[in-house]
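Most newcomers find our protein records easier to grasp once they have seen one. Sequence and backbone structure share a record, each on its own labelled line. Nothing more is needed to start thinking about how sequence determines fold. As an example, a complete record with its sequence and its structure tokens follows.
=====
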Amino acid sequence: MIVKAYGAYAGDKPLEPMDIERRAPGAEDVEIAIAFCGVCHSDLHQVRAEWAGTLYPCVPGHEIVGHVTAVGAHVDGFKVGDMVGVGCIVDSCRHCNPCDEGMEQFCEKGLTGTYNSVVADAPGHTLGGYSERIVVNGKYVLKISHKEEDLAAVAPLLCAGITTYSPLRHWQVGPGKKVGVVGIGGLGHMGVKLAHAMGAHVVAFTTSESKRQAAIDLGADEVVVSTNRDEMKAHAGSFDFILNTVAASHDLNPFLILLKRDSTMCLVGAPEHQHPSPNVMLLLFGRKSIAGSLIGGIAETQEMLDFCAEKNIVSDIEMIPIQQIDAAYDRLVKSDVKYRFVIDNASLRA
């Protein structure tokens, strides 16, 4: 099956229209007509070869939502017309301990990413959601129960949503907990919404005074400008958990000072360059931890989607046609979006 897509043939080339091949749906597959695809910062890093190992042609996109157009004979739980999503994972070994425990993101054999992972299908690696259709094993397809009119804004939940939901759940964020969210961007704005919905007292950290009201509108109970020493000092030693979503290299020490004894700061942003090494004494005196978290497994991603549907949570988006993707990438580098670009995949046929 040949479908229209947008991708790049080299890291220094703009994205352009291309025809790509999708496999015919097998007995365990679901075929999906993609309605919308979110734009993740990872897309930019990978397609522009800022991360090593990019396979070309590269068709990015792992925040995919759409409707089922075909269902394999051995697939249960889906029918033609269903609203569904595909996130960052389209396969895994299915036999290792993490896979058995529903944590496919930590597959010991290596997960199969929605794009840029080696597979048998042409052209030898996976091609993502900047395309008309996709065929995915039914075990890695997710049900969407939001309203149809919210579908575009659901797309970023498949990466930004689960990336923030998973650590919030793992560290048991909820009522009675004081939680910080560092950075109010694509990830951070979801972190604020989710932590608020879980019942925590949420403090948003930003370097920009101009984002104060925006963070409150997202659900933050307080906002701290992290460059203001007095504001930071007022919160020293008071946080149960800090979710750090910033994807740029920065000093972690000011945030370690804010943690209570035995508390954790979890990093979910993937910086282009490593963070400066933190002051170990800040960890020793207080038994504090720095941790990391990577998306979530399929079951947890489904749990997140159901939670967001129940709480009427979606991402704040700016819709674009696919023809504006390179301009969107340039704006993404400048943090010039509130808070997530989403591609209208109908524009592929323009």
Q: What stands out?
A: The chain has two domains: 2-159+296-349, 161-292. The CA atoms of residues 81 and 297 lie 25 Å apart.
